Amino acid sequence: MDNTLFNFELVSPEQKLISEQAFQVCIPGEEGDVGVRAGHMALVMSVRPGVVEIIREQGGEVEKIFIAGGFADISQTNCTVLAEEAVPLKSLKSERLQAELTRLHEDMGYADTAEEKTRLSKRITIVSAMLDAVKAA
Fold it and tell me: Measured between alpha carbons, how far is 97 from 91 in angstroms, rounded to an integer?
């Protein structure tokens, strides 16, 4: 393996989305964004909703995938992101997200239980982050 590359995996509950070598990955951590390259110090961190940016080779194109939070396990030769939900950023559409956000806010007005309100609030946070990511792209 090229010593400028490391093994990168992005896993969601549904599937393993990526399992290959990468030059650099940027992960939206709870404490701030973390750039990962080969030789990175060992770290386990919580991940907030946001965009993971993957560069497979030096000078290569950036692939962007929205994740809805989770955890990252980083070492000198490996980086694994366990995401609650993962969607390629290019497949997200602003109009659809705005409509979902409107529906979620309406549903919040009808929520009866604390559990339902918590679930809806979490989804509103995720869809809002998706919408922000699409607008920033």
Answer: 11
